[in-house]
Design brief:
α1 packs antiparallel against α4, α1 runs parallel beside α5 and α4 runs antiparallel to α5. The protein is mainly alpha-helical. It is elongated, with a radius of gyration of 17 Å. It contains 5 helices and no strands. The chain has one domain.
């Protein structure tokens, strides 16, 4: 009988929780930082920030919810990533790929920076 992987059954791949939580945290932190901190940072780098105006108008009323969601997602992703380092991953699992682990770590750092900017400058 052939072995069916999780991906072929429509289930998320094992070890993808940290990646998905990191993406969710970065998106929420981007929404929090879009009104205040992110335009300052991008303007310092010489980039235009006019495109953030519409996003800031949408995100500003929900700032506290986005702040909490970003914090929960980023902390949960950090815990999952830390637990994956201690556990032995199955072959071909998402957590065995060093590039995915490195990209998740970079995403966590970017999310934390955006979260800090959004919290500090608002």
């Amino acid at each position: 009988m052939p072995d069916l992987s999780n991906a072929s059954r429509g289930q998320p791949a094992r070890g993808s929780g940290a990646v998905l939580l990191t993406l969710g945290g970065v998106v929420a932190a981007f929404g929090v930082a879009s009104c205040c901190g992110l335009p300052f940072m991008l303007a310092t780098l010489g980039l235009g920030t006019a495109w953030l105006g519409g996003l800031a108008l949408l995100a500003a009323p929900h700032r506290l919810i986005l702040l909490v969601a970003a914090t929960v997602c980023l902390v949960s992703a950090t815990v999952l990533l830390w637990r994956q380092r201690a556990a032995v991953c199955a072959p071909r699992a998402v957590c065995t790929r060093p590039a995915i682990r490195g990209a998740t770590m970079i995403g966590l750092l970017v999310g934390l920076a955006l979260l800090y900017l959004g919290y500090t400058y608002a």
